[in-house]
Structures are given as C-alpha cells and as structure tokens.
Amino acid sequence: MEENPNKTKSFVIAGKSFRSRLLVGTGKFGSYLQMAQALEASGSQIVTVSLRRVEIGENKRQEDILSYIDTKKYLLVINTSGAMNAEEAVRIAKIAAHGGLPKWIKLEIHPDPRYLLPDPIETLKATQMLVKEDFIVLPYINADPVLAKRLEEEGAAAVMPLGSPIGSMRGLETKAQIEIIIEQATVPVIVDAGIGKPSHAALAMEMGADGVLINTAIAIANDPCQMARAFKMAVEAGRMAYESGTDEVSKFAVATSPLESFF
C-alpha cells in the first residue's frame, strides 16, 4: 500500500503537535498512584478520562483523579463513556467544558452493554453537534471506512477505529478495514480498543496508524509501569518501521545474496 501523501512524520491533532504517539486511558488501575506511575512510564502526552470519574464544581473533594494528572504535562481528553445517544454525549461534553476542562472530547456512544460497540448514527450526529460548539472531537468508531470519511468531512479532528471490542485484548481483528481508513484519511487515525499486547500496537503503527490508545492492557498488567514502558517502545518501533518503508510481501522466496555471483 502506498503511503498517504497527506501523512507527515509529525503527530499533529487539531494543530497541536505531540512527541508521543501513545495515548493512555485511566480506567481499571488499582489506585490513582499506580495510574500516575504508569502514565509517567508510558511517556504519553495525551490522557483520556471519563467525566464520571472527575469531580468538578463546589463539591469537589481535595483528592480525585485529577489530583494525580499534571495537566501541564498531559493533555486531558474527556471521554463520553456511558452516553447512550448523541444528546447525552453532547451534554457530558458541555458539563466538562463548563467545569473548566479542555474542549477535547473522545466521543464514545455505545448503547449495547454486552459488546460496547459504538453507535455509528449517533456518533455522526454528535460529531456534527459538537463541532458546531467548537469542541475538538475524536470519535471512537467501528472500523468502517465510509463512516470514518464522513466524520472527517464533518470536522472530526481524528478518527479512532477499534481493533476489536473494548477490553477484549484480541488485537487487530479489523486490520483490513483499518488499512483502508488509513489509506483514505487526511486526519490522524488512532487505533483504539482491543489492543492487548505491545506487538498489537507495533503492528498498528507499522500499518501507518498515527497513534494507538491503550488502557486495559496496561492497567490490569501485573506490573503496569513495565507494561507501559513496553507499549512505549512498541509504538516507537512500529512507527520507525513504517517510516523506514518495506518492500511488498513476496509469494516466493527471494535470495538475500545474488546466486549469479558464484558462477
């Protein structure tokens, strides 16, 4: 597959540049301290947080999740997890903004509690509504190239196709569709959900993804900090391989040394 000429070596979302292409979620950690240590080990600069876990307003406790996230070091992206439709997602985003949180939104709408698959119709609708309100929208979607392009046209700052269902750790089951999304996209493509091993992340980056978002695989590891470092290196190695370029896969064996030189 030819490299998309619109891709650059810099990782830029909505005009903001980042060194790290690894995004990290903040759920499922054993403690906020463990989470903070894993974030540090990951080298990530973008952290996603569910608004349900954030205390805002006058009743804010002295210590909550934001007490452990240095917002000068990390870009805080609020996710709308729990939203059942576009209206609920927009309401969550507005509550976060009114509470002084960044207008960067990871848009999640998954009404099915068993598989947590994103609702494409409500996601498109919410993106249209939020973009009009000047939010920077990063929609989580199934690996649907047509939807990804529509969201891009509606002003999404990036698209976040799933590799496999949330928390499943099954890897890139949607690889073929993600490749099409990457080929067609002119906004960053961040693979989200289902990545369970650093090798999965490396593969996504080798394919040309602009970034990956990891939560469960780091949070539930026996050693979250070590796993965070492993993902950091995998993302860097995968991107380095992609930028280096590789030849097409061959059906037949290809000698590494020309046999003609022996005769």
Automatic annotation (TrEMBL):
Keywords, sorted A to Z: Cytoplasm, Schiff base, Thiamine biosynthesis, Transferase
Active site (catalytic residues): 106 (schiff-base intermediate with dxp)
Span of domain Thiazole synthase ThiG: 13-258
Residues that bind 1-deoxy-D-xylulose 5-phosphate: 167, 193-194, 215-216
Catalytic reactions of this protein: [ThiS sulfur-carrier protein]-C-terminal-Gly-aminoethanethioate + 2-iminoacetate + 1-deoxy-D-xylulose 5-phosphate = [ThiS sulfur-carrier protein]-C-terminal Gly-Gly + 2-[(2R,5Z)-2-carboxy-4-methylthiazol-5(2H)-ylidene]ethyl phosphate + 2 H2O + H(+)
Transmembrane segments annotated in the record for this chain: none
Keyword Transferase among UniProt keywords: yes
InterPro entries: Aldolase_TIM, Thiazole_synthase_ThiG, ThiG
Taxonomy, superkingdom: Bacteria
Localization, UniProt: Cytoplasm
Broad EC category: transferase
Span of the signal peptide: none
Keyword Iron-sulfur on entry: no
Pathway linked to the protein: Cofactor biosynthesis; thiamine diphosphate biosynthesis
Protein EC: 2.8.1.10
UniProt cross-references to Pfam families, sorted A to Z: ThiG
Subunit (UniProt): Homotetramer. Forms heterodimers with either ThiH or ThiS.
Task of the protein: Catalyzes the rearrangement of 1-deoxy-D-xylulose 5-phosphate (DXP) to produce the thiazole phosphate moiety of thiamine. Sulfur is provided by the thiocarboxylate moiety of the carrier protein ThiS. In vitro, sulfur can be provided by H(2)S.
Similarity comment: family membership: Belongs to the ThiG family.
HAMAP family noted in UniProt: ThiG
Name of the protein described by the UniProt record: Thiazole synthase
Species in which this protein is naturally found: Candidatus Methylacidiphilum infernorum
